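Q: Can someone sanity-check these two? First one:
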Amino acid sequence: MLMICDYGTAVRLPSLVDEDVQSKIQTLVGSMYSVRGAIGVLQEDIAAIRKNVTSLNNITSHTSSVSRQLLTTKHFTTAMLEMKEHTATPVASVFGSVSSRGEGEGLPTDCWELLEKGNNRSGIYRVLPPEASRPFFVYCQQDKRGGGWTVSSHN
């Protein structure tokens, strides 16, 4: 008599079944256990793939966000450069001529001086502070907290 165990369930086969059939049944049972093991491995693989897909989705979202920030920064930089070109009029025509040595004559020392001269429009201007060896561009904030604020950036 042949007994087959299936996860705690014993199945008795009658002794009438010949040995060849019993051997084939045992082979099928072994194959069934192998298939169940393979299914378990495949389920683990599926779980790992799902985790990887989630990770890729997160990376894609982050990359998209960073890309949008870079585009925003690029547009901001482009806008600032355009504003600089339109706002920073030639120094010779607004503040006097430029000497042969390249130093600005008649340039304001800071944004407060510009404000005192009646220039109350915020924008990018060229100034020559007393301690500076040459003029440079600054942003003048003329409409907040009384105006005259000088903003410079050294990059």
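And here is the second, same format, sequence then tokens:
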Amino acid sequence: MAREYAIKVEVPPGRFQTFRLMLSLPYLMLREKPIQSSQSLDLESQEKLTAYDLSFLVDPAATKNPTRFVIKEAHETVAIFGRKDHNWTGYAFSAPHMDMESETDNGDEDECDEEMPNVDLFVSGRSDEVIDPNITIYDPRTYFLRTFEIRIKVIQKEYGWLVKELQNLTTCWMKSKVYTFGVSALLHDQDQRTSLKQTLEDLVNLKGVLQDVRSHLADTLLAWRDFSKDDGHISVFSDMTAEDANKALEGIKHSFAQLGLLEQKLGQLHRQCIDSADVLTLRMESENYLLGRHMHELNFRTTELAGKTTQIALRSQQIAEETNRTTRTNVQLLMITTPFAFALQYFCGDSNFFSIERTPKAFVISLVVLFLALPIVNVSVDALHQGRKALLQWVATKLGRKGGPADDEQLDPKSLDTDFTEVV
């Protein structure tokens, strides 16, 4: 039954009558420890009983002596069994004292020889409440109830401090992380966006801690409800009239009532976490909206720049068209003025090396001939140029070279002439 949630009374049937009074209640306990500069935070290797590390709820920069809170697993187990009221024995087990230091005592050795206190450690366990061992309790049920009362008070105390510190830590953490920085600053502050993401991760961890604590506490209360229901094992103690037994039973009921209130407080903390998650979700949506709006503005500016670039390209195209048109006009003017220039130069010159009569009629005929000959000359020159390119390409093909006309234009004409001579 170790590590199980159980409060049982068993009387097996048969001629050999025995009884068993059993209590097993695992629980969680919170401990605060200072953070040393040389101390490793690897909880898995240092704290084997650690269930959760609450360091994310504490800001080390906010205090001069930073500490970390850890939640650890513990348990209280008691078993009393026997055959008669005066013939019984019992065993009790508790989790090791979580505040025990590993350091050795360097004081006087005489301190180790001190006598043990005159108390009943079976009943007291780790509690400060003790009973006088000189007062003999013969009834095992009374002894079980007294032990149950004291040990459930230990559990109630641990859960009480755990829930109280969780409330304080959660409240301070929410004030500093959830309800502080403005949404408008998120757009231009990458650190705050990272902080928002980390806050969401810490909130998920916090909800997991609360859920686990509530689960442990709920299992404890469920074990009590099964024990204290009308047909439960508590009926074994219904015929007891001893004042100590009834007082212990009332104390047990009071402790479980307080544990029920603590469970309700954990439920409130869980709802606060849900509300905080909604707030952080709204912040993320607001951030996404602002980021989307910023991206829309950037896209709009990009579109404007693209429009201006298009206008510049259109203007450049218009200028190119005007330049092309001007070039064509200049070529036409050149085609027109060139015959006049040749004719005037010949007819106005001193020498008549063509033996043409210099008359107005001859001048007009010369202009007509030049007008007709100049386009033919241009076409012929272009044809010669194309023929030269074709010849060079053919020579390159014969020489085993690959490439198109663009490659032929980059060839060295002298080398081509040499190769062509060798081929011939």
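A (reply): Looked at the second one. The two ends are 111 Å apart (CA to CA). Residues 6-95+116-299 form one domain.
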